Amino acid sequence: MALLLRDVTIGFTGRRADVRVEGRRLVAVEPPGLPADGAEVVDGNGGTLLPGLVDAHAHLLQWASSRQRVSLAGATSAAHAAELIAAAGPKPGELLQGAGFHAALWPDRPHRTLLDHVLPDQPVALFSNDLHTLWLSSAAMRMMNVDHPTGVFIEDECMALTAALPSPSTDITDRWVLAATEAAAARGITTIADYEYTDTIADWRRRGTPATRIRCVIAKFLLDETIERGLRTGAPAGDLLTVGPLKIFMDGSLNTRTAYCHDHYPDGTYHGELLEPLDQLLPVLRKAVDNGIGLALHAIGDRANTLALDAFDHLGVGGRIEHAQLLDPADVPRFAALGVVAGVQPAHQPDDRDAADRHWAGRTDRAYAFGSLHRAGATLEFGSDAPVATLDPWEAISAAVTRTDDDRPGWHPEQSLPLAVAVAASTGGRGTSVAAGDPADLVLAGRDLTGLPPSELRDLPIQATVLDGRLTHRA
């Protein structure tokens, strides 16, 4: 079935056109007036037509699951978080789950006894907003057959326990995940890189057809199996599926205070956690590279980013650094020089500004340094890290442009990006324009973005999303 996108504005050019799609390609971009000739017509009314948007970093099962959990985003203390989860419970015989808490600014610390007090004998699992902390009640620890003095697990222990928690049947969670891709398509997304810590390829082959393309990222524990299966980054893995890069954690996170930094945190001599010493990491990375598997290194603290860039330099290959939240100024030009993509999540910046001001005091001029990276020639690709932030590219674009999401002035506005640059960082390298012959992965925004007030970006209406030549969303 052909499509005719009538009276659209092409990117940021200001040019109005009709765009015809046949099969998987744009076949015509002409002045308004093209005949329908049997095509399905979508009236653009001057809205902006862009290449389909890409979320370059999300955790789709966790995002889909978080939509079912109790929100703790408004918790102002550990005690308050316990009160919020208590108000939602109890659920006898079930695991009660909450998500989205930010502990970095709390006056108290999470502890199992807080949960035990408000919900005796109720298994409770609470996930931090950055997914690097899992807080369990005593009953939940008994359910999981683990013991811990506080019930608060971070980094590797957190990841392992998160994967082992009881969950609904795969039939149910698969429906949740497919519905999440439909919600993503409704915001203009045509591709998502799934960074879930599972066998993403097997999961997606089981689930059926998503509403977006999926890049199936490889967890470290599956590297050898991936090599044995003959899979290489960029290769097809199924309908709308491709093999993604290998994900490796260099350090932790800001809100857990485990991001690995050159300078210590305010409470002493602690610099965060290096999760993988470079001499132990390099043989793993070399094995991946030698077998055609690309690299995506999680690095948040400036020292972790230095070491990640050192690894790429040593290997003589490019790749990705995911997050790149705090950078040594000397490392900024190394991204472009080494061919390393900065996979960043701009919506984290307004969420984390207060935690950064406290824990990275005196260094925040080089935190979430999107402007510096862009000016140095680095390739920026935006993601959400959902469920850490909402799986909505316009949240990221708005944060990159305005550096705020409330009534406060932009935080370090010198690190903001022009709108066209922010949009280009959300299209996976396709820029902001379209032309005949392009792949038919497209998004039609309901407004002309030229001159659009930044305050309207977050709620930008999406008229249509086209994936591989077919509509996946129509307003």
Q: Summarize the main sheet.
A: 9 strands, mixed
Overall structural class, as computed from helix and strand content, comes to alpha/beta
Find the count of extended strands (DSSP E, 2+ residues).
22
Percent of residues in β-strands: 15-25%
Tally of alpha and pi helices: 15
Give the C-level CATH assignment of the largest domain. Alpha Beta
Helical amount among residues, as a percent range?
25-40%
The CATH architecture of the largest domain: Alpha-Beta Barrel
| CATH homologous group name of the largest domain | Metal-dependent hydrolases
In total, the number of domains comes to 3
* Residue-averaged pLDDT: 96
Rg for CA atoms:
22 Å
What's the shape? globular
Low-confidence stretches: none
Distance between the termini: 19 Å
Word description of this protein:
This protein is α/β, with parallel strands linked by helices. The protein is built from 15 helices and 22 strands. Strands 6, 12, 13, 14, 15, 16, 17, 18 and 19 form a nine-stranded mixed beta sheet that branches. Strands 1, 2, 3, 4, 5, 20, 21 and 22 form an eight-stranded mixed beta sheet that branches. Helix 1 packs across helix 6 and helix 9 packs across helix 10. The protein is globular, with a radius of gyration of 22 Å. The model has no long low-confidence stretch (mean pLDDT 96). GO terms for molecular function: hydrolase activity. Pfam families: Amidohydro_3 (PF07969). Its EC number is 3.5.-.-.
